[in-house]
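Chain A, query sequence.
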Amino acid sequence: MTKSVLPTFDVVLSGWVFLDIVFTDLPTPPRPGREVWTGGMGSSPGGIANLAVAAARLDLRTALAAAFSDDGYGAWCRDVLDKQEHIDLSRSRTIPGWHTPVTVSLAYDDDRAMITHGHTPPVSGRELLARPPSTRAVIADLGTEPWWQDYLGTSTLVFTDIGWDPTDTWDLGVLDRLAGCHAFMPNEAEAMAYTRTDTPTAALAAVAELVPLAVVTRGAQGVLAIDQSTGEQAAAPALAGPVVDPTGAGDVFGAALVTGTLEGWPLAQRLAFATLCASLAVRQFGGALAAPGWGDLADWWRCTREAARRGPAATAELARRYAFLDEVLGRHVGRAVRRADATIARLADM
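Chain A, predicted structure.
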């Protein structure tokens, strides 16, 4: 009898790693000639690191293939991802003389504006993943180089997303890249623009004709999804709560959705779980280091159950919706996770 070999990883990722410097609680947007003092600040690895950390904190065996600079920012980002978050970086490469891309994010009015500077990494994802490792899933951006196409036609599930099109062209040819992919997870504006539809529901139906798992996120309106492989259709409302910084919330949602899919959960549970993870992320500073771990989820569930015993009907309904967490949390051990500091941590802190 042939012994089955488990994939080396649960998730493989590739992309740009940024240094994110996030300013929160701005009293007013910045204006020429004026200085604005903010209520908070955090530094964190960003870009593809948002997805990598979110996946690793949900106990997914995560590999990241990325270029890192040999400057101080690059060394710090690499140490955080490797030594603190235990992400496999064996397929990443340090590039002398190339500087780390930097994004400054200004969070206000429950949204954010960003300023970024960087140069294209001298090594591509395809080069870094010339020998793709075995994995249960990959998460990729349709708008970037197609490093993930070697996984099409294999047992690996390819989850895809797409960023905003600043040219306002919304080239339909981009959707051709979905052939062979398992999932597409755009937000409602992107979904409607690319499918030439007028409502999120119509956009979802159009996306469902292209991939087995179609997901349309709607921000404060929640999320809609159709899973053709299971015959399920579901929606989940957004969770109310404070918003400190929305940076990386979509990445946290995506990592949580992949987690639930790999676990074989019903679609409604997957959407509820992903929505919860994203909701907890926006309550913290920074993108990558705001991602919740199982300890954060356990704390939220304990507080929610206690509130449901003596609270209003809406809280009791929330507890019923998340009752599946009792079983899920029993399979995971919560660990302490580090949040974004106001300054870049000393290397000794790793």
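The chain has a mean pLDDT of 90. Residues 293-334 form one domain.
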